[in-house]
Design goal:
This is Inner membrane-spanning protein YciB. The protein has eight helices and no strands. It is mostly helical and 188 residues long. α1 packs antiparallel against α7, α3 packs antiparallel against α4 and α6 packs antiparallel against α7.
Protein backbone atom coordinates (compact mmCIF):
# COMPACT_ATOMS: atom_id res chain seq x y z
CA UNK A 1 0.00 0.00 0.00
CA UNK A 2 1.40 3.42 -0.87
CA UNK A 3 2.02 6.10 1.79
CA UNK A 4 -0.93 8.28 0.70
CA UNK A 5 -3.37 5.39 1.06
CA UNK A 6 -1.89 4.52 4.45
CA UNK A 7 -2.20 8.15 5.60
CA UNK A 8 -5.83 8.29 4.38
CA UNK A 9 -6.64 5.09 6.28
CA UNK A 10 -4.99 6.36 9.45
CA UNK A 11 -6.13 10.01 9.30
CA UNK A 12 -9.54 9.44 7.70
CA UNK A 13 -11.34 8.40 10.90
CA UNK A 14 -9.87 11.39 12.73
CA UNK A 15 -11.01 13.74 9.96
CA UNK A 16 -14.50 12.20 10.08
CA UNK A 17 -14.52 12.69 13.87
CA UNK A 18 -13.55 16.35 13.48
CA UNK A 19 -16.17 17.06 10.81
CA UNK A 20 -18.99 15.26 12.61
CA UNK A 21 -18.10 16.97 15.90
CA UNK A 22 -18.11 20.41 14.25
CA UNK A 23 -21.51 19.72 12.62
CA UNK A 24 -23.36 17.78 15.30
CA UNK A 25 -21.35 17.67 18.54
CA UNK A 26 -19.15 15.26 20.42
CA UNK A 27 -21.65 12.39 20.66
CA UNK A 28 -22.22 12.31 16.90
CA UNK A 29 -18.49 12.80 16.35
CA UNK A 30 -17.75 9.83 18.59
CA UNK A 31 -20.27 7.61 16.78
CA UNK A 32 -18.84 8.58 13.39
CA UNK A 33 -15.30 8.00 14.71
CA UNK A 34 -16.24 4.47 15.79
CA UNK A 35 -17.77 3.62 12.42
CA UNK A 36 -14.92 5.25 10.46
CA UNK A 37 -12.18 3.47 12.40
CA UNK A 38 -13.93 0.13 11.87
CA UNK A 39 -14.14 0.83 8.14
CA UNK A 40 -10.45 1.88 8.09
CA UNK A 41 -9.43 -1.44 9.68
CA UNK A 42 -11.53 -3.35 7.15
CA UNK A 43 -9.97 -1.41 4.25
CA UNK A 44 -6.50 -1.99 5.66
CA UNK A 45 -7.23 -5.71 5.90
CA UNK A 46 -8.65 -5.78 2.38
CA UNK A 47 -5.61 -4.04 0.88
CA UNK A 48 -2.82 -5.73 2.84
CA UNK A 49 -4.32 -8.90 4.29
CA UNK A 50 -2.96 -7.83 7.66
CA UNK A 51 -3.60 -5.09 10.19
CA UNK A 52 -0.64 -3.59 12.08
CA UNK A 53 -0.84 -3.85 15.86
CA UNK A 54 -0.89 -0.10 16.65
CA UNK A 55 -4.07 0.62 14.61
CA UNK A 56 -5.75 -2.43 16.16
CA UNK A 57 -4.95 -1.23 19.68
CA UNK A 58 -6.06 2.30 18.81
CA UNK A 59 -9.30 1.04 17.28
CA UNK A 60 -9.97 -1.17 20.29
CA UNK A 61 -9.64 1.85 22.58
CA UNK A 62 -11.84 3.99 20.29
CA UNK A 63 -14.55 1.32 20.27
CA UNK A 64 -14.35 0.73 24.04
CA UNK A 65 -14.16 4.37 25.14
CA UNK A 66 -16.41 5.59 22.35
CA UNK A 67 -18.97 2.98 23.37
CA UNK A 68 -18.78 4.12 26.99
CA UNK A 69 -19.11 7.74 25.86
CA UNK A 70 -22.28 6.99 23.91
CA UNK A 71 -23.78 4.55 26.38
CA UNK A 72 -23.25 6.80 29.42
CA UNK A 73 -23.66 10.06 27.45
CA UNK A 74 -20.41 11.31 29.03
CA UNK A 75 -17.62 12.70 26.83
CA UNK A 76 -15.05 12.07 29.58
CA UNK A 77 -14.39 8.61 28.16
CA UNK A 78 -13.53 9.69 24.62
CA UNK A 79 -11.39 12.51 26.05
CA UNK A 80 -9.27 10.23 28.25
CA UNK A 81 -8.81 7.65 25.49
CA UNK A 82 -5.70 9.35 24.00
CA UNK A 83 -4.20 9.65 27.46
CA UNK A 84 -4.65 5.96 28.17
CA UNK A 85 -3.48 4.80 24.73
CA UNK A 86 -0.34 6.94 24.93
CA UNK A 87 0.33 5.83 28.52
CA UNK A 88 -0.04 2.20 27.44
CA UNK A 89 2.44 2.65 24.60
CA UNK A 90 4.87 4.53 26.88
CA UNK A 91 4.66 1.87 29.60
CA UNK A 92 5.18 -0.97 27.11
CA UNK A 93 8.27 0.76 25.70
CA UNK A 94 9.71 1.67 29.12
CA UNK A 95 9.16 -1.87 30.46
CA UNK A 96 10.62 -3.39 27.29
CA UNK A 97 13.65 -1.11 27.66
CA UNK A 98 14.08 -2.07 31.33
CA UNK A 99 13.86 -5.77 30.50
CA UNK A 100 16.09 -5.42 27.44
CA UNK A 101 13.38 -6.45 25.02
CA UNK A 102 13.12 -4.64 21.74
CA UNK A 103 9.47 -3.96 20.96
CA UNK A 104 10.27 -1.30 18.34
CA UNK A 105 12.37 -3.76 16.38
CA UNK A 106 9.49 -6.23 16.40
CA UNK A 107 7.07 -3.56 15.19
CA UNK A 108 9.30 -1.83 12.63
CA UNK A 109 11.98 -4.42 11.86
CA UNK A 110 10.56 -5.11 8.42
CA UNK A 111 10.77 -1.40 7.52
CA UNK A 112 14.01 -0.35 9.26
CA UNK A 113 17.32 -2.14 9.75
CA UNK A 114 19.05 -0.51 12.73
CA UNK A 115 21.80 -1.43 15.15
CA UNK A 116 20.70 -2.63 18.59
CA UNK A 117 21.77 0.71 20.08
CA UNK A 118 19.71 2.51 17.44
CA UNK A 119 16.63 0.46 18.28
CA UNK A 120 17.06 1.07 22.02
CA UNK A 121 17.50 4.82 21.55
CA UNK A 122 14.54 5.06 19.18
CA UNK A 123 12.32 3.10 21.58
CA UNK A 124 13.17 5.23 24.59
CA UNK A 125 12.61 8.43 22.60
CA UNK A 126 9.17 7.18 21.53
CA UNK A 127 8.35 6.18 25.11
CA UNK A 128 9.06 9.73 26.32
CA UNK A 129 7.11 11.17 23.38
CA UNK A 130 4.06 9.02 24.17
CA UNK A 131 4.27 10.15 27.79
CA UNK A 132 4.39 13.78 26.63
CA UNK A 133 1.30 13.24 24.44
CA UNK A 134 -0.57 11.76 27.41
CA UNK A 135 0.28 14.78 29.57
CA UNK A 136 -0.65 17.23 26.79
CA UNK A 137 -3.99 15.50 26.26
CA UNK A 138 -4.76 15.74 29.97
CA UNK A 139 -3.86 19.43 30.04
CA UNK A 140 -6.00 20.26 27.01
CA UNK A 141 -9.17 18.34 27.84
CA UNK A 142 -9.14 19.47 31.47
CA UNK A 143 -8.54 23.17 30.74
CA UNK A 144 -10.29 23.91 27.45
CA UNK A 145 -13.62 23.41 25.72
CA UNK A 146 -14.54 20.17 24.01
CA UNK A 147 -14.20 21.81 20.59
CA UNK A 148 -10.69 23.03 21.48
CA UNK A 149 -9.81 19.51 22.62
CA UNK A 150 -11.11 18.04 19.33
CA UNK A 151 -9.04 20.60 17.39
CA UNK A 152 -5.98 19.68 19.45
CA UNK A 153 -6.61 15.99 18.85
CA UNK A 154 -6.87 16.50 15.09
CA UNK A 155 -4.50 19.42 14.42
CA UNK A 156 -2.12 19.03 17.36
CA UNK A 157 -1.39 15.38 18.00
CA UNK A 158 -1.00 14.30 14.35
CA UNK A 159 1.35 17.16 13.37
CA UNK A 160 3.36 16.71 16.59
CA UNK A 161 3.72 13.01 15.82
CA UNK A 162 4.79 13.66 12.23
CA UNK A 163 7.27 16.31 13.39
CA UNK A 164 8.67 14.03 16.09
CA UNK A 165 9.01 11.23 13.52
CA UNK A 166 10.89 13.54 11.16
CA UNK A 167 13.29 14.51 13.94
CA UNK A 168 14.19 10.82 14.34
CA UNK A 169 15.69 10.70 10.82
CA UNK A 170 19.25 11.61 11.92
CA UNK A 171 19.18 8.85 14.55
CA UNK A 172 17.85 6.35 12.02
CA UNK A 173 20.45 7.31 9.43
CA UNK A 174 23.27 7.17 12.01
CA UNK A 175 22.29 3.69 13.22
CA UNK A 176 21.15 2.17 9.95
CA UNK A 177 22.76 -1.19 9.21
CA UNK A 178 23.36 -1.77 5.50
CA UNK A 179 21.49 -4.73 4.12
CA UNK A 180 23.53 -7.50 2.56
CA UNK A 181 23.01 -7.84 -1.19
CA UNK A 182 21.00 -10.89 -2.20
CA UNK A 183 23.18 -13.96 -2.56
CA UNK A 184 26.14 -12.49 -0.66
CA UNK A 185 25.79 -14.58 2.47
CA UNK A 186 28.32 -17.12 3.69
CA UNK A 187 29.19 -19.80 1.16
CA UNK A 188 29.39 -23.51 1.90
Amino acid sequence: MNQFARLAIEAGPLAAFFIANSQAGIMAGTAVFMVAITIALAVSWRLERRIPIMPVVGAGFVLLFGGLTLWLQDDLFIKIKPTLVNLLFAIVLFVAHATRRNVMKRLLGTVLNLSEDGWRTLAIRWAWFFLLLAVLNELVWRNFTTDTWVNFKVFGIMPLTLLFSAFQAPLILRHQVPEEPAGSGPTA
